[in-house]
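User: Working on a comparison across species. This one is FAD-dependent oxidoreductase from Rhizobium daejeonense. Can you predict its structure so I can line it up against the others?
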Amino acid sequence: MATDFEFIVIGRGMMGAAAARHLTLEGKRVALIGPEEPADRLAHQGVFASHYDEARITRTFDDNPVWSQLASRSIERYDELESRSGIRFYTEAGCLFSTPLPGEQGYMARAVAVSKHLNLDVEVIASEKLAARFPHMRFPEGHSGYYERRNAGYVNPRALVRAQALMAERQGARLVAETAVAVLPGAAGVEVRTAGGRAYTAGKVLVAAGGFTNLCGLLPQPVDMRATARTIVFFELDERRQAEFSAMPSTVVFAERDEDLVYILPPVRYPDGKIYLKIGGDSEKTAFEDLPSIGGWFRSDGDVEEARKLERIAVSLMPGLEGAPTTSGACIASFTRTTYPYIGFTSSPDVAVLTGGNFVAAKCSDELGRLGARLIIDGALSESDFAEELRPVFL
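Assistant: Here's the predicted structure for FAD-dependent oxidoreductase from Rhizobium daejeonense:
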């Protein structure tokens, strides 16, 4: 029995759109299924995605060599993707880590070791020189800096997804702006049914549904992953503040405990025409286990208490933000048991999964998409593509 497509990718987010593009580069017949970003977030009752934003940090400096290499492979392709698509999504603003002097253990100690092992171009800035180099910041006492000037900065996730989807479509993919509600493997292939009542068939299906992976009944068995709430705060910048913060790099500031870090994005123009500086953290209070709760979170402005905490931290680090208007928003982060993305087949040999950003996958989403494409074309990942590390864990 003939199928509509060789491959269907479910999920038009950062990983799914990348996977579709890489499949079309191999000349495959591909459908990319997933809804557009909702025009009215507050009224929307369907699925969401976490790429509905204008800035995410990108870097190769990382405490894990696998994540560092995944990022490096993606960043190497940014320029070509921008040139071919005509869509700019990457700004090389650099990335600065501000941290207490690393001990023998912890994130920074591991990151320094990885940077040396992979020969990354990371400048170490002594505590007494940080303020002069980055005058917009008031660094905590005793902090030193690790500054990656090249191949680091931020990506616009909305624009990156548009570039990936545009190139996939130009290369022959069919974009289906619908929500998948069922994946039904059979003897003659896999049928994907959508909320609009349509059905599409393919030889193999790759489910790249982000934090919704376990919540929509798309897999024959759930993956061992939790989708957790994250709150972000936006400072609206007037012309004076725009000038003050215009040269800042993407920044990560650690506290005494690694989990108390905050990340800060440089000033970026958002769809409302205003310029915002964004700050977020890594604190986790809620994990979602059903569609109504995760949908309600996306329709909210995040956790009020967490937003106020982030505002205080931001002003303490950047006094020039004092008095700037603020708004907050909600996002989610998906964490796997292995701390790596999941890229592998389910109990069905025709249904694979690509998910698990672990709070850091935006920067390497193109490589993760490429690996998802390789998996369903070749039937397995190679050792050089981190087959063992990326193996999914199912419940």
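For your comparison, note: The longest strand covers residues 225-236.

User: Helpful, thanks.
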